Structure formats: structure tokens, C-alpha cells
């Protein structure tokens, strides 16, 4: 059973960098795409970006200039850095893995972490 | 890319059917058959219910079905049960390796 667990500070000061790590267990991190998603209070889910195990990344254009996702295959972990945070970045942050669809492409989020609440406040 | 449009809320009585719509554009839902649906109970991880428009993962009841017409995808839940009360979100590929969620729909079982 694949399990994902987010970890990191629950409180970040405005203008600082939010850093979270997702630890994967139950399967190899290799061969898959790994995502970060967030949900601000009272709002819908927002895709932040993904990283392929080889290091290829893609980010939501609305966050592109502030986001960095990295992977450490030796530790079965991938990480999110979001710089220059404001109160608008307060959200539950989820990590998730893509599953492969019928045509062999990554098409859906099959495994999710439980999520971690990050608040931005001084 | 802009968020996909979902109704804020829908409701139905036990045993009834409800349909949740997810409207995008010709750049996402209208072009790609990579629409998936997620059930989200507060405090829990979202759960995949439908992928590739109309495919159910193993373990998801066949009361849940998905479809698409033009720029709008739909999730239908038949034989509504109390435990179906949750938030539901759609998710679609938007081209150029970009992805977009819907705003989410709160389903209330009356």
C-alpha cells in the first residue's frame, strides 16, 4: 500500500519561504510523477506542480516564479519550497502521486497524503 | 489556466441520483479525456472516484459514474447514500503539462 506523509512547519512568517517534504513508502519513488496540491480555507483545490522522479518539473503558472519542487530518490522524498509567502498562501498542503491511465499517460491523482495545514502569519 | 466551473452545492435524498457538472474550455475538458473526480471528506485525504472521464478504480461503487459532453464533464451518483455526503472536485489536463481543478461542489444528502 503506497503511503505519502507531508511534514514541515505549520507556521511561516510573511515574506519567508514555506518548505514541506513528502515521504513516500510502500513503493519506489522511481517511475512516477509526484505532485503538490493545496486547499486554502473555504476554497477549492489548487494544483501547485509536479516533479518526475528524474527531476523534470512543471509548475502552475500562477505560482511559477515562487515555486521549486525537488526530489531525493535515495530518501524516497520530494519537497516543496514556496518563497515570499503571504496570508494568501495559508492552506492545507497535500502531496500526491499520479497514476497511469489507459493510454499509458499520467492522468489522475491516485495516492494522496493526509495533508498538512500551513498558516502564514507574523 | 482558469479553474474549472462546478456548482457550489448540490443535494439529494437517499436513493435518488445527483449529477455534478464540471465546465471547462476547449483547452482542457473539451480536448482531453483526462478528467478525474475526487471525493473529499473534511480532515481526510481526497479519494479518487473516477479517472479518464468514465473509469472507476477498483473499490469504488458502481453507483459512481462519469461522462463528458463537449467542454463539460459530469459525475453522477445514483442510489445516494448518507456516506456520499462530501465535497467533490473535478481535475483536468489543460495541455502543455499543466493541470487544473474545479472549484469543488458540496454534496448534501438530505
Name the poorly predicted regions of chain A: none
What fraction strand of chain B? 35-45%
What is the radius of gyration of chain A?
14 Å
- Gross morphology of chain B is globular
Mind explaining what this structure looks like?
The complex is a heterodimer of chains A (122) and B (110). Chain A has strands at residues 3-7, 11-12, 18-25, 33-39, 46-52, 57-59, 67-72, 77-82, 91-100, 106-112, 116-120. Chain A is an all-beta fold. In chain A, the strands form two sheets. In chain A, strands 2, 4, 5, 6, 9, 10 and 11 form a seven-stranded mixed beta sheet that branches. In chain A, strands 1-3-8-7 form a four-stranded antiparallel beta sheet, with no helix packed on it. Chain B is mainly beta and 110 residues long. Chain B has strands at residues 9-12, 18-23, 35-40, 47-50, 64-69, 72-77, 86-93, 99-101, 105-109. In chain B, the strands form two sheets. In chain B, strands 1, 3, 4, 7, 8 and 9 form a six-stranded mixed beta sheet that branches. In chain B, a hairpin with a 5-residue loop joins strand 7 and strand 8 (99-101). The termini of chain B are far apart. Classes of the chains: A mainly beta (122), B mainly beta (110).
